Each structure stands twice: as structure tokens, then as C-alpha cells.
Amino acid sequence: MVGLRLIPPIGAPIVISQDVSVVGREPGCEIYVNDGSVSRRHARIERRGAAYFVVDEGSANGTFLDSQRVADALLRPGQEVRFGAVPFRVEIAGAPGFETDGTILGGTPMAAPPPVRPAAPPPPPAHPPPPPAAVAPPAYPPAPRPAAAAPGAPPLPPPPPGHAPAARPPRPVGPAEAPAAAPARSGRSVWFWVAIGCGSILLIGSLIAGGIGFAVYKGYRAIQAPAAEVKAQLADVKAGNLDAAYARLAPPYQSEVSKEAFQAFAAKHASFSQNADSSFSNINIQNETATLGGSLRSTGGESEDASFQLVHQGGAWKITDIEVGGERPQNAIPDTGTGVMTIEPLGVEKRREGGTLRVTVRIQVTGFKVRPEGNVFAIDLAEDVETIGPDGVVIEGLSRPDVERFAGNTSLATGAFASFTTNLTMDPNSVPGTYMVKLTVRDLVGGGRIEHTAAVDIP
Fold first, then answer.
1. Which pLDDT tens digit goes with each residue over 71-91?
2. Of 34, 261, 370, 416, which residue is the least packed, with the fewest Cβ within 10 Å?
3. Spatial distance between the Cα atoms of 31 and 18, rounded to a whole number of angstroms
4. Coil, strand, or helix at residue 408?
5. CA distance 83 to 102
6. Which pTM does this prediction carry?
7. What contacts 71, CB < 8 A, 6 or more positions away?
């Protein structure tokens, strides 16, 4: 029986029917997610009895449930589970809004690109050529040695012209021809002392320049340290690590700004929660305090003026005040929906089941209020159904209040949606004509309500 469905932001839903499904970037995974933030074997989804759990496999970028990093957590309807930077909305069989028209995983991994096989190396030659034979130098006959003169033989003839005579012994040099000794120098050259002086001046200049450069570097680091702390907070908020971002506030400032108010403030300012760039043209540091002024730009291109105040405590900078777009977290009013509800009809279906006619009406609701609960927001909606026959009379058997309830959590302060699927079992032999099915959705958090009427023709 199909039990769990993951709804991506874009694309077809993924319905999971097996007990264990591995999520990862490895092609062999049951849930194949081709994204650089997802590990090869990122996490797994397990069915334990009637419940589903998500278990992190030691991924590099983490597994998050409603923006909280988890290792082993229970999945509930309406939650957001995120693998690295890829989010899915959770729907579970039996929970409101669950449908089974997604992609069902029955044990076969999702398609992955075929592996690339390396080209085979060329075959070695059948018979390697022999190494070239070494060429020996030509042999020459030894030179003949002169024969010794026999006793009583005439003397040998003189050597031929051009033959070098034997060297003569050197002639001794007399006292008058001896070279004169070089006069002794009385001290070092003036150029030596000039070189020493120039080298000393260069050495002293280098030391002074190095000292100035080191002082400038330390000053630059000191100026950039508060800005680095602010950029680190912006990175935490963008990654969904709201606890880490909130921990960068100084304790006295945390007493003024609750975690819920901080989350609501981030949700209202895209330049803060989805920051793409930050520039601070005005940085002022005095003693142990710092003030930064500049602008923030969101990934969508929105830009807002911003200022931050920090204090240096315990060897680290802590944020003591934030202002973005003229608003501070301690003064922000949580914007939990527009309060103007809208209904988008998703279609009406009719089909015979045995001797009955089953009518299904699907709608999607937006603009309702949500209630902050810790790091998430609670949704609480109820649906009433009233069916009116062709004669204008209400059919009691097809009318009922609270026919469906949508209660769950979302990580979105604004922009959340809820889907309702209403099923009516009718007699196919009913009076022919047009039946009006009126759906009323009530917002139990904000008190709003909205109606939608769908026409059903029988037969």
C-alpha cells in the first residue's frame, strides 16, 4: 500500500511504497537527486510500523526537517524535508490532501546516466624489435716500438724535421730580474663604506615599510572582523540554520528579540533571508563597539538599506542591533499570511464504482493565516460541504460540516498552501440535472473563510 509522498518545488511528486528508500546523488539510489549539495548516499527513508522516519547517512550538507538539521526523525504530514539544498514537502497516506497520482517507487532505482567506459589501450606489438647492436670502434694495430740498438751498431739517425726537441730546464732568475712586490694597502676602499651605508639605509627602510604594512594589515583585519560576523549570520539564515544565526546575537539583545520574532523578521526581508551580496561603506569602530552601514541584496535582485551594531565580548563580535529596510526584529509584527483567502479549483472527476457514482472535487487554498510554533508555523483549516440538487433543495446525505480537516506545520510564514480532495458517493439513477457542490473552507487560526461551488452534471 502506498504510504508516503514527497512533493518537490517543481516536477512530479515521488510516492514511496517500500520499507527503505535511499536518497542520494549515486545513480543506484531509489530516490535519485542530481544536485551538487546532495551526497552520493545522503539519507534514507524508513517505514517503521505505520510511521515513516528520515535517517541521515552522514551527508556533507546535512538533512533538515522544517529547517532543523536532524539525524533520525519522524516525518509528519505538511513538513518540509530538505536534503542539502533540495526541499520536499511531506504527505502521508491518511493525512489530508494526500493523493496517489505521483511517481511510485516499487523497488526500482530511478534512471541514472549510463557509466562512461574508458577506451581500451592499444594492444602491444607481437614481437618487439631487437635493440640495435652496438657498433664497436675500428681496431687499429699498435704502434711499433723502436728496436733497441744492438751492441756495436751505429747510432740512430736524428729525428725528422718538425719533431719537438726535449724541453730545457728553466733558467734561474737573478736578483735584478725578480718582480717587484706590490705595495701594502693601508685601509679599505671608500666604495666599501659607501656600499655599507647604502645597504644599512635600505635595511632600515625595509624594516620600517614592513612594520607599517603589518600595522595596516592588522588594522584592516580589525575593521573587517565585525563585517565578517554579519556576513556569517547572513549565510546561516540563507542556509536555514536559524539557531546558529540567532546564537550570533548578544545575550542582552536575545532578551529583546525572541527566536520567533527573529524568524518572522527574516521571512519578511528577502535581502536578509536570501542574501546574495552585502556591502558596508560605513564602518565605525570605537573601543569594543562597531557600527556598520550599507545595503543588502537578495538573490532575486531586491535591495534594502541595512545597519548592524556589534560589541566585542569574550574574544568574539556579537550583534546587538539589526535594522533592514527601516525595520528591526524587536519591532517586527509576524506576517502570517495575507488574510485574503483564495481558492484555485483543480478539477471535478466522475467515475462509476460498482453500483455507485463517485464524484471527486479538488481545490487548493492560499492566503490563510498561520500560527508561529517554535521554528515552524501551524496550519489549521476545516472544510464544510453542502450539495444542492437540480430542484434547489439541499441533499442532507451529501452535506456535512467539518467533512475534512487540514492541520499541519510549514516552514513558511507566508505563501503556504493547502489542498483538499472531497469525495461524494451518489446514486447514478438520481434525478438528472446539474448538482451544485458548495465547499466552504474555514481558517481556524485567522478566522477567515472562503466558498467555492462546483457544478456536477448527472448523468
1. 999 999 999 999 999 999 999
2. 34
3. 12
4. strand
5. 20
6. 0.32
7. 55, 56, 63
